[in-house]
Amino acid sequence: MKKIRWGVIGSAGIAKRSVIPGIQQSETGEVTAIASRTLEKAQQTAKELNIPTAYGSYEELLEDPNIDSVYIPLPNHLHKEWTIRAAQAGKHVLCEKPLAINAEEAREMAEACDVAGVVFAEAFMYRYHPRYKMIREVIQSGEIGELRGLYANFTFNNAGDMGNVRYKKEWGGGSLYDVGVYPISAARMLLEQEPQAATVHALFSEAHGDVDMMAAGILEFNHGVALTFDCGMWAAGRNVLEVIGTEGRIEVPSAFVVHQDQQDNFIVTTKEGSREVEVPKLNQYSLQADALGRSILYGEALPYPASDAILNMKVLDACLTSARERRRVELTMEGIRK
């Protein structure tokens, strides 16, 4: 089988810890090069992860004719520039979430990739694990009745790391950008619709660059269904999703972090009792890489195209506007209603 030759632009922790090993374990891909701001750093990471080629600049990697696709784990404010530059160099792109700083940037990125004829996707790894297909099947079966609401959270405490890029407002820092996008994307995916309005209250910390260190909100969907969520970078760790129906509920104890070596099952509870649904032990990062690989190699449709990422950014824009301006923000297909 022909393999997609991946280049990695940047040596962020998520790349080294999860995405690069995931690509290396995938069926369709191999990591052939990595670039960092210094050659020394790139060489160190390449040695640690057994990557053949290291570059001391991002431009050099994009000029490499032996690279088919790039993964971009750079700080959020650099996603647009390097996605567009990669597309113009003829490289397919997997860009770390959140895709951009706002929906307009996301749209520009998608258009550039479309013009260049390259595959483009946002790196929401959890969606590629079959667990969520299984959850949707339970919902669609009617076992828990009619949907009444979703509850989700994603929090961690990293507030002591004062130099963290997540605390730079102008770089797209804040908990909504970093982890709030997970509950938002999950609700849109499970409900298969877009929210009509967003209301978010947040803790903005002057000590952390005035970014939202904690946020809690509600997204209004059709038929009176809502997502109630919270996210934070200054709170005890949580990562849970609950789907409530008229006749039962689904609990996902580890909703967005799937451990390949653990059994991250979910629980269905009805009046008949509770049952634990066993899910396969799979590497969600490898599954993500293979989805792009099959699209590049065989023209298979991406399960989550760039249009989905633009819509998710629209919702995030509304959440940020609501939190900053302390008001309910209505959404339209065109964008935020003033």
TrEMBL record:
Residues 132-251 form the GFO/IDH/MocA-like oxidoreductase domain. GO terms for molecular function: nucleotide binding; oxidoreductase activity. Keywords: Oxidoreductase. Residues 4-122 form the Gfo/Idh/MocA-like oxidoreductase N-terminal domain. It holds the Pfam family GFO_IDH_MocA. It comes from Pullulanibacillus pueri. InterPro entries: Gfo/Idh/MocA-like_OxRdtase_N, Gfo/Idh/MocA_domain, GFO_IDH_MocA-like_dom, NAD(P)-bd_dom_sf. This is Deoxyfructose oxidoreductase. Belongs to the Gfo/Idh/MocA family.
